[in-house]
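INTERNAL AUDIT FORM
Audit reference: QA-55
Scope: verify that the stored structure record matches its stored sequence.
Auditor: D.O.
Record contents follow.
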Amino acid sequence: MERAYDAIVVGSGFGGGITACRLAEQGWRVCVLERGRRFGAGDFPDRLAQFPHALWHPRRNPGGMFDVRIMRDVAVVTGAGVGGGSLVYANVQLPAPDAIFDDPAWPHVIDGGELDRFYTRTEEALDPHATPAQPPLAKVGAFDRMAENAGRTALRLPIAVHFGADRRHPFSGVFQQGCDNLARCDVGCPRMSKNTIDITYIARAEMFGAEVFPLHEVHRIDAPARRGDDWRVGFRDLQYKTAAEVSAPVLVLAAGALGSTRLLLRNRRRLPRLSPALGSRYSGNGDALALALDPTATGVAGAQADVGPVMTSRIDYIVERGHMIADGGLPASFGDVLEVLRGVRLLTGLGRLRVGAKNAATKIGFSDHALAPGDMRVKRRQPIGDALIFLCIGRDAADGRMHLTRFGRFDIRWQMNRSQRLFDAMRGSVRELADAAGATAFFALDAGPLGKYVTVHPLGGCPMSDDPVAGVVDDAGKVFGYGGLYVLDGSIVPTAIGVNPSKTIAALAERGVERLLAERAR
């Protein structure tokens, strides 16, 4: 690693990967600091017994892939590794509904029309397609028939997956095999069929000279002492247990809604001009999991949720009820996860005690616990059998608050009752679909071993705004009050999106880095 670069990018997911790529294409010397490791085709867990070893922990397992954080009011699951959340997401590439931008929390220039060309730009790398009709998939047919029985229409989702013959990705040149319907999108694809950020934007950034440093966790930010000085970033090398720093005139935070917000909150004394809005407008994007158990309706039974991409289709209730419902999938070897949702005790012995203790500690301010491998010793049970898996996503109130507790621990305060109308509507939709499937509905809003709301789509914390009092960054991700400091990730999204947010985060990053380059070229 050099001592200084033209730009430092913290994080390598949708925001960081895109930023690093576009800067490197223009000849910038770019340093990417990523807390997680690199993953190759053979590095992903393939059965539930291996899952505990996939839990990321800064000391006990920095080579993990899933970062599960326990807060007082919520639990949040994010990805760790080169490629960020794209490693473990379901590949859905939906633009935000235009009505989302009518919310006054958004800067006035940001709307669907403004983002259209940036949505299109992301497709050069992410290359989304609908799941092909051939070979026919039982889960697709079952979802279609269930929707039809309920008087609805199932729509195919655009997903960032390569279907077809093996190839070199046209954007980056990385080798991929075609999708083989393994239902492993959320636990890591061993065929590299997913167009993840590591094999698209990051690989292209490295083609143009960007340097990526895995297992480097940033903890300190020092602002330039004088005009023209560099930003200094302190980090820990999680592999060799050392600490060092690197500097650059431009610093882009792209560590995700939790990562970027946590980093700024912990460095607020060094950055006293940060907006009072730091930590505000947290949203779980209305995430909720649900099941339709033991379907009996003709054409719905035998859905085989373990064959196909994880998500293929959705039913759109957005205009009518403020949410959508997508199908889900899971490899058969991970089927016991569905029992966890229903609150069945899969955790055993000391692991159960550890998780219980961490959960209890959040109530007094010792929050932000990362689950570690020793916390998740699971006992094997008989899987629940035939079921349709749903992911519900909607527009929650986006009124949560990220803050540091009196013990200096990062925490999220969020009240479910403020979004109760949305969740009641989701529960009703799930019940309707389960009835149409001849199944038993199970709505897993706060089920599972933690007994609290869990999200995989955290947003907010560094919201964008036209007003420096109401937002941390402007419409292009530039931090108010600090030249050369930007945030380009899900933390700048000021409301729930109501659909899978990855495409919107990517479009905002494409727009933000274009503005950054234009500004620096003046």
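Auditor finding: record pair retrieved intact. The mean pLDDT is 94.
Action required: none
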